[in-house]
Specification:
- By secondary structure, the chain is an alpha/beta fold.
- It has 2 domains: 227 residues, P-loop containing nucleotide triphosphate hydrolases (Rossmann fold), CATH 3.40.50.300; 88 residues, CBS domain Like.
- 36% of the residues lie in helices and 20% in strands.
- A hairpin with a 2-residue loop joins strand 9 and strand 10.
- The longest helix is centred in the middle third of the chain and has 18 residues.
- It is globular, with a radius of gyration of 23 Å.
- It starts with a helix and ends in a 6-residue tail after the last helix.
- This is Glycine betaine/L-proline ABC transporter ATP-binding protein.
- Keywords: ATP-binding, Nucleotide-binding, Transport.
- InterPro entries: AAA+_ATPase, ABC_osmolyte_uptake_ATP-bind, ABC_transporter-like_ATP-bd, ABC_transporter-like_CS, Gly-betaine_transp_ATP-bd, P-loop_NTPase.
- One of its GO terms (molecular function) is ATP binding.
């Protein structure tokens, strides 16, 4: 759901009909009607080419956490590298802040990578002979920032990502989670407009991974920085994303908020993907409510329309009756045991989506507890 602010400023990234094809005469694949409808294996057999990204379109709005997820080989990592032309797209439109990225010359492209979009990779890529501070300051050094200024800014980033007291250590003296924090701090130090994450936490232990997810959530809450996050982990995508693009064989099969994807999967592939998701922890009461009857409108506990079904279950059980869903002074509906159990059991999936923005409709909607 696009906010008024997003509409006024326009998207940070606007991607239209983007293709990345590997193989002989790759440029002949996009737009060729002969190859339309072919599966990935059929296309390889017919042309010898692999379409890693296949006719993909989406916008990323300012302040949004946009998650691209899919299984290995779905094209998600290729896609994020195309955004800054670390991998050269085969065809399509790629625009950042109204500027054609594909038309950029070498100087403009270097400026984009050094100042406007910073990448955080799965492999930390830290320089082993440099201290934490100097690793964090490396991007600033590439920009030509003086030593005193870049170390001062690096020291601020050390504090921001929770590495206080570790600035003079070498990477080998850090845990995996601490090393990943250095990588995150290095990206933040150049003050980019967009942070691009390519499966940054997949090699970390589960508890450390959760800590790093919390760190990303905290930083986004404090700074509101635009983020594009690549992952193969559905729970991570649901936890971090304002919107999720779910990919398969180079194509986006569904794009929506976490709630939309879980509540209304686009096809059997998506339905299978989200089958084990605890629906009550993703779906809001806005999708579960019914009209009030009798005296229900006048009394009973109150829930905000963005409250999760899990919260509503606790409230309804505790109070022993339906809860009112209120938007300010306006009664939107009520939820009782029957409606809440229908969500948990997945019996609400065929119900039409409600009017108005959903819980995760914008990054602004997620501020103030939407991710907790």
């Amino acid at each position: 759901m696009e906010t008024a602010e997003q509409s006024a400023t326009g998207p940070v990234f606007s991607v239209k009909g983007l293709w990345k094809v590997f193989g002989p005469k790759a440029e002949k694949v996009p737009g060729n009607k002969e190859y339309q409808g072919l599966s990935a294996s059929e296309l390889r057999a017919r042309t010898g080419c692999t379409a890693a990204v296949r006719d993909v379109s989406f916008d990323v709005h300012k302040g949004e956490v946009f998650v691209v997820m899919g299984l290995s080989g779905s094209g998600k990592s290729t896609l994020v590298r195309c955004l800054t032309r670390l991998i050269e797209p085969t065809s399509g439109s790629l625009v950042m802040d109204g500027e054609d990225v594909r038309a950029m010359d070498g100087n403009r492209l270097r400026e984009l990578r050094r100042h406007r979009a910073a990448m955080v990779f799965q492999h930390f890529g830290l320089l082993p002979h440099r201290s934490v501070l100097d690793n964090i300051a490396y991007g600033l050094e590439i920009q030509g920032v003086g030593k005193l200024e870049r170390r001062a800014r690096a020291a601020q980033m050390v504090e921001k990502v929770g590495l206080d007291g570790l600035g003079e250590r070498r990477p080998r003296q850090l845990s995996g989670g601490q090393q990943q924090r250095v990588g995150l701090a290095r990206a933040l130090a150049v003050d980019p407009e967009v942070l691009l994450f390519d499966e940054p936490f997949s090699a970390l232990d589960p508890l450390i991974r959760r800590d790093m997810q919390e760190e990303v959530i905290r930083l986004h809450r404090e700074e509101g920085r635009t983020m594009v996050f690549i992952t193969h982990d559905l729970s991570e995508a649901l936890r971090l994303g304002d919107r999720i693009a779910l990919m398969r064989d180079g194509e986006i099969v569904q794009l929506g908020t976490p709630e939309e994807i879980v509540a209304h999967p686009a096809d059997d592939y998506v339905r299978d993907f989200v089958r084990d998701v605890p629906r009550e922890q993703v779906i809001s009461v806005r999708r579960a409510m019914r009209p009030a009857v009798g005296g229900e409108a006048a009394s009973g506990p109150v829930l905000a329309p963005g409250a999760l079904v899990s919260e509503a279950i606790e409230t309804v059980v505790r109070e022993g009756g339906p809860a009112r869903v209120m938007d300010g002074d306006e009664l939107l509906g009520v939820v009782g045991v029957e409606q809440l159990l229908a969500v948990v059991a997945g019996l609400d999936e065929e119900a039409p989506a409600p009017d108005g923005p959903s819980r995760a409709g914008s990054p602004r909607a997620r501020t103030g507890g939407g991710r907790e």
